[in-house]
Amino acid sequence: MTSGSGIQIPSRLPLLLTHEGVLLPGSTVRFSVDSPRNMHLVSHRLLKGTSLKSTIIGVIPNTRDPEHDTDDLPSLHNCFEAQERTVVISASLLRLSFCRIGTAGIAVQVVGSNWPKPHYTLLITGLCRFSVTSLLKERPFVLAEVEQLDKLEQYTSPAGEGVTAEDGELGELSQKFHQAAIQLLGMLDMSVPVVAKLRRLLDSLPRETLPDVVASMIRTSNKEKLQVLDAVSLEERFKKALPMLTRQIEGLKLLQKTRKISPDTEKRVTNIFISLFPFSRVLLKFKKPCSLFDPSSLWIALPRFARLKKMPQSMPEYALTRNYLDLMVELPWNKSTKDCLDIRAARTLLDNDHYAMDKLKRRVLEYLAVRQLKTSLKGPILCFVGPPGVGKTSVGRSIARTLGREFHRIALGGVCDQSDIRGHRRTYVGSMPGRIINGLKTVGVNNPVFLLDEVDKLGKSLQGDPAAALLEVLDPEQNHSFTDHYLNVAFDLSQVLFIATANATATIPPALLDRMEVLQVPGYTQEEKVEIAHRHLIPNQLEQHGLTPQQLQIPQNTTTDIIGRYTREAGVRSLERKIGAICRAVAVKVAEGHRVPRSDASTPESPRRHWQLFNAAPPEMPIVIDHTALKDILGPPVFEMEVSERLTLPGVALGLAWTPLGGEIMFVEASRMEGEGQLTLTGQLGDVMKESAHLAISWLRANAKVYKLTNIVGGPDPLEGTDIHLHFPAGAVTKDGPSAGVTIVTCLASLFSGRLVRSDVAMTGEITLRGLVLPVGGIKDKVLAAHRAGVKRIILPKRNEKDLEEIPANVRADLDFVTTKNLDEVLNAAFDGGFTHPQLTSKL
Ligand SMILES: Nc1ncnc2c1ncn2[C@@H]1O[C@H](COP(=O)(O)OP(=O)(O)OP(=O)(O)O)[C@@H](O)[C@H]1O
Fold first, then answer.
1. Does the beta carbon of 354 sit less than 6 angstroms from any atom of ligand 1?
2. What is the pLDDT of residue 216?
3. Least crowded by CB within 10 Å, which of 175, 416, 636, 703?
4. C-alpha of residue 576 to centroid of ligand 1, in Å
């Protein structure tokens, strides 16, 4: 079927002459076949043929009255004067000199039956137009020589190709047609399969195929379809099909207008409501139940209301229908809150609620400002990405407050069933609506702020992919008619403001990530944490525990102690928990003091309001938490400043790692013993990290002479007669990535040279076999982690210098950054007094 000029249909086609319907290219039509000639075509050609070619037939539509059909050949349809100039073919095969148009189609299904009389049913998909040039034979079925009129490639080329705006009038026509088709789709219910199919086709097919496809799908008479079929020129085809499409749109508009609820319907619905929901809060609040629904949902609910009224309550279906209708009644179809957005107030509110996070707050304000200027803003969906406890959820809550909207959090962590998002079909026992519809029912308005928490932790299972269901929810082009399986009526989600949060982008499904604007929320510095604790966490916790600042005081150095010795995290969640623990302990003391009032409580012997006094007498207020009290309440410190202690042996170096929970310091330890030159790696390492270790050893062996590295017996090859063991502590945690390269080299250089790595240095960077240092990610989080751990010098790749700008000035001032291009520079910076100085230059 393929030739030099593209895909070709066979030049000789058997003709199916039918008066049942009109097959247009791109559409699929079912034909019932019972005339002898057509029956022969099926039995002799379609059922006997074995090749794809033999399933292609020509379908010639016929406008003649089927009542008078005989075994004579029906009249052929003429492309110029369809009705008048029809000619009976059997008169003479050769007299057919004018154009007869049909559609070549591929028979995709043949079904035979003997009842009530023998016949076949064919399912045929139209491929392209053809014209009959001559008839070759008449029996047992008609065979004709044909000429192909349409190109077939258009169905295989992607949307967007083909007719474009540059094509003059044709381009304009196609543009108009496309827009009208989109308008029509907007008025239809997406849950109807044919509508969804039209939407898919509109997105995927090139524009020149649209007149045929749309004319076959919308309501058109056979005569109109024939007009489209006859229009061989593309321009004419658009001109013929456009009025049909416009007519359909106008008709729908009229229908929607007349479907507005009449006073009669209003009365009927109110009566039904009174009988079904006598004490419903809906009735108490709204006198007119009709106003609760939008017209389309009311028309779906009404028959069910009527059915429920007649149903005995003992019927199992009663409870199902009742639950469904309860949901229909409670959903906020038409109810929304009014946005009260004032950017200046929003700025103050965000600043009051959250300390630091300047970049994030700036972007959120920009977003809100655009919303204020253009209320019908579609997208983007903001996605806050950062370690736990850095305030992502709480910023989402503040956005809802600034807009004066309801807030609802949907936890997506671990969700692995798409019906969690989209609900179960009502045919299932125990079916329920999905979380989106449930959330709307909970908040009771159709324009809340929905926080999709932990989108990176969505799962996948045999029950479908919830991320795919979320795509429809988040796509502003589609979510105006979101259909929950349980509800089975489209609900408009376009007013809902979606915000997502995640710990890392790597595990967010790419299609979902593509629909969101990612805003990074990095961890906090020690100073920021102290400020957050004193401005927000302590007052909040005091309030939650019923305490006042007159009863409990936590000085700044105690907070610093909690941050440094009891928590090690990027966010402030553990810090908040520890403050909570202090509040609980103090609350007990305060409550005890209230119950046993002592006459001498106000004149204690010791002027210091000390925690230890508690056991002796009710404490004097305020209770100040000092180091001793802290130790009593929280126990001994969990984290010590272990860095300098652990770097006291050769073969230990300190690296920096990035995890979704923020930056971390990471020790690398190495030891050597007599052996055969084997390398053992432990600490749950990924493949990339193992490769880094091999790279490091190879580089050191290659450069052993330059750096005077020796093996156990003092030989020149460090690995000769030596086994090496490299260990990455915190063995239970899986580690991977190339950024430990420089740390492994430093650790091994220390082992082979017997020299100590500086006790205050941490490093990160990928290495190459030639000894160059390549940039890595997560610099800000890593630097903050090093700062938390009390490191003073940080060795970084040269090309990461730009990332230092993001680091807060006070942290930068505390640290000495050494940026390096090659391993020689790394070693010189990592050891006191340098290592040695061979010259290696990087062109990277
Ligand atoms: N910059 C800040 N200013 C004031 N409070 C903050 C700040 N950052 C975090 N918090 C407080 O820390 C607590 C934890 O924050 P939140 O629950 O928003 O964290 P999260 O980033 O959403 O964490 P997760 O990823 O685990 O959901 C909240 O009580 C919040 O008020």
1. yes
2. 87
3. 636
4. 9
